Structures are given as structure tokens and as C-alpha cells.
Amino acid sequence: MRTLSFLGLDAAERPRLSATSIRQLARLGTVVRWPGLLFAAILSLAVPPRSSIGLALVLVWVTLYNAWGMIAISKADDQSILRIGRALTLLDTVSYFLVLFVFGGVGASTSIYAAYILLIVWMVAYDGAEGAMLCVGIFVLGMIVLHAALNAIYGEGFGSRDVLLWSLIMVVAGAILAAYDRIVIGGVLPQAAGSAGATVETPITSATVPAVRLSPREQEVLQLVSEGYSNSMIAGRLHLSENTIKTYVENLLSRLNARNRAEAVAAASRQNLI
Asked: Which CATH number, 3.40.1740.10, 3.40.190.170, 1.10.10.10, 1.50.10.20, labels domain 209-270?
């Protein structure tokens, strides 16, 4: 059984997405955060924050870690990109509640809580049901801490009704997203389809489909990957830039239909490419 580690990747865990897909998802997150920052700034014109300095600090905080994310994603190898994506999403959950606190819970307009569902979607994309459970748990804890802080500092009273109602909504949303992911995207249906077609397609495929044709340079990169070289080590060995090697590796993963280096090496071995 796979266990969820907050930022790490368990030894026996197989990423649900290819390294290329994870990188694209993480990059999309860095793009989406910029209009999110703009929205928070515009919201301050309609709903004056409890602390303008507090809002400014939160906006600077999000700007800094989003800029870090953009740099880290561009430099990360395939083994660390998932950890970076998870870290950025968890930082988003913290920033979400900081914004709510600065705006004092946004007054009577509690519908802003619904925006948290986007973070659940992101965590489900990274970690499936485990990601949904983690994100929903953070929401429940965050709501309790938020309302307790508002009560202690501003004397607004603990909004137990809002905490209970929106926690229930997030539990239901998380369950629906996790079930959809399990059945449609990464679980039951793809496995069932694969099992149904395995007895018919596997012999034909192995007999008729030729091995992937690689260029000499791709062959060199694949060989070094199979020997355990990192992107930076391969770049030094072949006298190429690390970004160039990263592109080669991502192309190899795509062409070999692999989600990570280990699967790529196994697929290449089956096709006698190494």
C-alpha cells in the first residue's frame, strides 16, 4: 500500500503522471498564481483588509515562493519535480488562509471558501485520493485555526456553523474528485481496459511492433540514464547544457511510454535498446 509523504517520494511509489506531465502541471500553477495575486490586490479595493501591511506581506510572500517555483521547476530533474509541485501546492494552502485572515474571513461572503476546491484539484492530480485527504484535512484544520484567531484577535466569535458547513462541502468535493480520478483517470477503467486487451494485444504487439528508433545522441543519453547518471552528470559527460539533456530525457520518456527513468530503462531493455 502506498503511503503519502508530504514532500517526498516513497521508495516503492510510482508517480501517477509522467515527469513531463508533472512539470507542465507545476508550470501551470506558477502561471495561475499571478492572476491570483492580482485578484487579492483588487479585492482589497472592494473589501478593505484588516491590515494593509499584512496584505502586502502576504503578496510579497506569494510572489517570492512563486518566483522560486518557476526557477526550481526549470532546473529540477525528473526525480525531484513532483516534490516541488507538492511543496508549491502546500504553500498555496497556507497562503490561502493567510489571505482570509488578513481580510477577516471576507465578512459575510463565505463563498470565497469555494476557491479552495482548486487546490484540492491540484493535489488530486499529484497524489490521487491521498492528495484529496491531505488537502481536505488541511482545510478543516485551517478553518478551525482561522476562526479561533479571528475570535481571539478581533472578538468576532467562533464561526462553528461556517467551519462545519464548509468542511462538509470540502469533504464531499474531495471524495468526488478522488473517485473521478480513481475510476476515470488513473485507476479502475484504464486497468480494466488493459487487462481485457492484454491477452489479445500483447502477443501481436511483441511480434509486429518494431523497437523505437533512436538517434545516436538519444542512444548515448539513454545508455547513461541506464547507468544511473543524473542530468547534470550526463551534461558534463556529453558537453551539453543541462536543459538540453532534460529535453532529451523527457523525449525518451514520451517515446518509451514511461513515467520515470526506471520505467524507461525497463522498456528500453525489453526492446534491446540498451
From this structure: 1.10.10.10
